[in-house]
Automatic annotation (TrEMBL):
Protein name: Baseplate J/gp47 family protein
Domain Baseplate J-like central: 182-260
Pfam families named among the record's database cross-references: Baseplate_J_C, Baseplate_J_M
Domain Baseplate J-like C-terminal span(s) in chain numbering: 268-357
InterPro entries recorded: Baseplate_J-like_C, Baseplate_J_M, Phage_Baseplate_Assmbl_Protein
UniProt organism field: Tumebacillus lipolyticus
Record family assignment: Belongs to the Mu gp47/PBSX XkdT family.
Highest taxon, organism lineage: Bacteria
Length: 359
């Protein structure tokens, strides 16, 4: 808006107001008197431009975006802690129990036991917020001595930890709230309420799926994987507890019987024939090829909630593999043994299976 209000333009206008019989050349008294004022005015216009952008949701950022969205009840989602399954063993690999509140370390992270699932199986919560709590697996070390405990293993993610919501995510959610008007159990209302639950990456809502008054909501975890049974149960309890379903004991309206499902994984096994550069062997590109396939499948999973159903396309995989260093050409690519695109159902997501390279 004010990009034309430069130092040169402002100084030129100021000098134009000075009579021509006065020396206005650079270095003259009048020039040196006006130049600092022109520089300050140019800076002022730049700051006006910045403040103008901060006043609108589509160009705002940081705390100013939060102040804008909070006017409509949309607040930035904070980072959350991951909850994981932990297995505890004593002598001869016998399951043992540990006190609630016991702390264990793996790498630079610390987890604490928060609840018991079964003998030797506990829910662990990361003390560090964010997605970093989802990443480590394997042997853990107790921070304090626990009698009879021999080994601790950090297992699958039950509820993924999430980083603080980004500006882009907050802006998108704000615009969705304004434009779709979630209210009283409509589709937008279910999507907004379920997506606000920690650990949820998105949902698809099917109204009247088993007759009038029934609603099916299929969820994907915030790390774009299939949700754990623990997460599904938590969402069910928040939206419409299974005890006395349809009675309005959760966030769902009275009379709505809501069923929460999770997406299901479909393994994608890729077989392809590569032409490699001289001196390059299949083993040298295997890991990069696998990473390229996984990156593509992850990109599909991130769009699952906005698509009717996902399609894994051979052309997209081949385009990415051609970007792998050492790959000259590619042909004969198949998905799960078939030389055609893989069409998934509405509640399915693709995950990496095997990647077989022929030369």
């Amino acid at each position: 808006m004010y990009e034309h209000q430069t130092y040169e333009a402002i100084l030129g206008r100021m000098l134009a107001r000075v009579p021509d019989d006065v020396d206005k050349r650079e270095g003259s008294i009048i020039f040196d008197a006006l130049a600092p004022a022109a520089a300050e005015l140019a800076q002022m216009y730049a700051e006006i431009e910045i403040n103008n952008d901060l006043s609108y949701a589509d160009t705002s950022s940081d705390e100013y975006l939060e102040r804008r969205t909070s006017e409509f009840g949309v607040h930035r989602r904070p980072a959350t802690k991951a909850r994981r399954k932990g297995l505890f063993r004593g002598k001869e690999d016998v399951p043992v129990n540990v006190p609630i509140g016991s702390r264990f370390s793996i790498g630079e992270l610390t987890y604490v036991t928060v609840s018991k699932v079964a003998t030797g199986s506990f829910v662990l919560e990361s003390e560090t917020v964010g997605v970093v709590g989802n990443q480590h697996y394997g042997e853990m070390l107790p921070i304090d001595y626990i009698d009879g405990l021999v080994s601790v293993e950090l297992m699958e993610v039950l509820v993924p930890g999430e980083d603080e919501e980004s500006d882009d995510e907050l802006r998108k959610r704000y615009l969705t709230t304004i434009n779709e008007q979630p209210f009283g159990g409509n589709l937008a209302d279910y999507k907004a309420k379920i997506s606000a639950i920690p650990g949820i990456g998105g949902t698809k809502v099917v109204p009247a799926w088993a007759g009038g008054g029934t609603v099916k909501c299929t969820i994907i975890a915030s790390d774009y994987s299939a949700p754990s049974a623990t997460l599904i149960d938590e969402v069910q309890a928040v939206i419409d507890p299974q005890v006395n379903q349809g009675q309005g004991l959760g966030l769902a309206p009275i009379g709505h019987v809501v069923t929460i499902n999770g997406v299901t994984n479909v393994e994608v096994n890729v077989t392809t024939t590569l032409t490699l550069a001289q001196g390059i062997t299949p083993g040298m590109v295997q890991s990069e090829v696998e990473a390229a396939v996984e990156a593509y499948l992850l990109s599909l999973r991130t769009t699952w909630k906005d698509q009717i159903a996902l399609t894994v396309r051979i052309s997209q995989i081949e385009a990415r593999l051609l970007n792998v260093s050492g790959v000259v050409d590619i042909n004969g690519t198949t998905l799960n043994g078939t030389a055609s695109n893989l069409e998934l159902e509405a509640e399915q997501i693709p995950v990496s299976g095997t990647v077989t390279i022929h030369v």
